[in-house]
Amino acid sequence: MEGLFGGFVVALQPGNLVFCFAGAFVGTLIGVLPGLGPTAAIAMLLPLTIGLDPVSAIIMIAGIYYGASYGGSTTAILVKIPGEAQSVVTCLDGYKMAQQGRAGSAIAIAAIGSFVAGTVGALAIGLISMPLVEFAIRFGPAENLALLLLGFIVILVLAKGNVIKSLIMIAAGLLLSMVGQDVITGQPRFTLGIPELTDGFGVVVVAMGIFGLGEVFENVEKFRTRDMQAVPVGSLMPTKEDLKRSIMPIARGSVLGFLIGLLPGGGATLASFISYGVEKKLSKHPEEFGHGAVEGVAGPESANNAGAAGSFIPLLALGLPGNPVTALLLGALIVHNVTPGPLMIQERPEIFWGVVASMYVGNVMLVLLNLPLIGVWVQLLKVPYRALYAALILFMIIGAYSLNNNPTEVLLLLVFGVLGYVLRKLAFDTAPLILAFVLGGPIELNLRQTMMLAREPLDYLMGRPIALTILGFALLLIVLPMFSRIREKLQVARAVNEL
Amino acid sequence: VNASTDRLRQRIGGAAGILCGIVVGYASWQLPLGNSRLIGPGAAPLVLSLAMVGLSAVLIVRPAASEPEDDDHGGLHGVAMVGLVALMVAAFGLALSRLGFLVSATALMYGLYAIGEERFVSLKALVWSVLSAAAAYLLFVVALSVNMPAGSLWGY
Q1: Which end of chain A is more exposed for a tag (fewer CB within 10 A), N or C?
Q2: pLDDT of B62-80, one tens digit each?
Q3: How many residue contacts between A and B have a Cβ separation below 8 Å?
């Protein structure tokens, strides 16, 4: 816990407090806009951090993340438009509460739940990180490869929609990551003779293009049909009954969300969905779910915040992003010359613990600043998107250019923006592509190193119990859904026979 | 989106995947493939491009079931708006080094605001574009010391 206290010393420095506040504020500002969630917000606002020192930059990005998540919940409750998948569940009961004149109560419960979960998350990171890092230092290429493969399989298991389409996106992301110099021989691959491609595509340009600019393009298409009608907020004071019914869902959501966030491929979205299911199952009034049950807001909102905190652990301690948001954060860390992984805690403790402490500070700021500002956010919902999108595009362009002070980056941003837009039109989920792009380099490097070390791959693997265990777990994840599908088919066949 | 349009959309996606897979596969074939112990730079992309061709072919033959989605499409008008915005960004990227940040950003913002207003000439768009370019300059170049070009055309 000593490190965490050190982190608070860093996060509470006046300059960092200002950046944390600014991040939370502008993050909420973007997150409140319907259709824009934390991933797009980070992608769009990353340029704001370019000129900052790494610690302040990462603290500000963490603030943007929390602010955008909070803003997304507000929009989900008031206009029933989730900014990102993690707020989808909040729409179900949050909007119903709003229609019943309890919007203020729903927003306040969401804020309280997020704050409690953020606190639990920060403390848990303080407790878990060091043992995990000590364990991870023993990892070699085979263990890293096994962990990366596990991450991919979890992504596939949890992917939205069709598995084939997700696999195509993964293949495309991996191929994109292979543009540039070969990781072992240094030979140029697919650079088309363009010198700017020698180092490959930057994570930030790819993510900002596909998530940020692609999202803006999609919204530009709907200019004419985008008029929002927010319901009135009402009192922000939750009733005693609402508070009483929220205590346990908040506690459960915080713990459950954090644990789910630790899994590769887990994070805020999965945490919120599972928490909703758990609360519905445990509730004395399951029939109220979907009709304005406060537990349906308290549990998922706490879980998604705790899940977000949990997903920081694989990123910061192992250097493995488990979801698109952490993939973007990885890109941001790399831009600021910080390489996340087991050595980061030892080499750059101020960044690791500063980020962890800033999660807590950011959550306090969100509660203290955003609840009084709720009226401002509601007003923002009335500003037409056609007036805001130009500023978002300019932000992204400046960010892309400033990465290498090269206009080619602006053109690459456009190429990836168009790609993101086209993929959305063709109903492909872009998240697996970004994750594969980020993990592609490490996967190829670890695979080739493992093959170099292993004279007999099978014998080599048998001598690596950690890698073997991780691969076994990955295999289970593939086999178990198959078994349950076969069982379902058998049950259906039996039922048909009985008829 | 009706089922046949959705299937067509997925088949277009599949065809694009096959095309990309073939092009990348051919380019990978030109690189050293190595052996099982010393894997060459062409091996992984070759395997991935073959996988992409195979998976895309499956998507064409058996398109995925339709997923519920947002019906809020802008139609051809919306696509044209996106095209115009993309053109503006491309023009900005090409003109930035020569015209400098302030001039190109003002022109870009005017274009984007004008597209938003769906009017070619607009005083409001002009005022907003000047203000937003100046604000971006103050924030990024002055406050955050981001190095944006001043413009070779003006002798910088």
Answers
A1: C
A2: 887 766 555 556 678 888 8
A3: 192
Q: B8 at the A interface (CB within 8 A)?
A: no
User: In this prediction, does ipTM exceed 0.90?
Assistant: yes
CA atoms of A408 and A73, how far apart (whole Å): 37
- Is A417's CB within 8 Å of B112's CB? no
Q: In this complex, do A452 and B116 lie within 8 Å of one another by their Cβ atoms?
A: no
What's the rounded Cα separation, in Å, for the pair A213 and B93?
15
Interchain CB contact of B114 with A (< 8 Å): no
Of A217, A224, A451, the CB nearest to B36: A451
A460/A411: higher pLDDT: A411
Say whether B96 and A428 touch across the interface (CB within 8 A). no
- The answer, yes or no, to whether residue A229 has pLDDT greater than 80, is no
How far is the C-alpha of A204 from the C-alpha of A175, rounded, in Å?
17
Paired residues of B115 in beta bridges: none
Helix, strand, coil percentages (3-state) for chain B, rounded to 5, are 70, 0, 25
Name the band, by pLDDT with cuts 50, 70 and 90, for residue A161: low
SS3 A109: helix
Q: Phi-psi category of B155—alpha, beta or left, where left has phi over 0 and alpha has psi -120 to 50?
A: left
B137 touches A at CB < 8 Å:
no
What was the pLDDT predicted at A230? 58
CA-based nearest residue in chain B for residue A185:
B41
- Asked if residue A227 has pLDDT above 60, the reply is no
At CA A193, angle to CA A189 and CA A196, rounded to 5? Answer: 85
- pLDDT recorded at residue A287: 83
Q: Give the tens place of pLDDT for each residue, A365-389.
A: 888 776 777 777 777 666 777 777 8
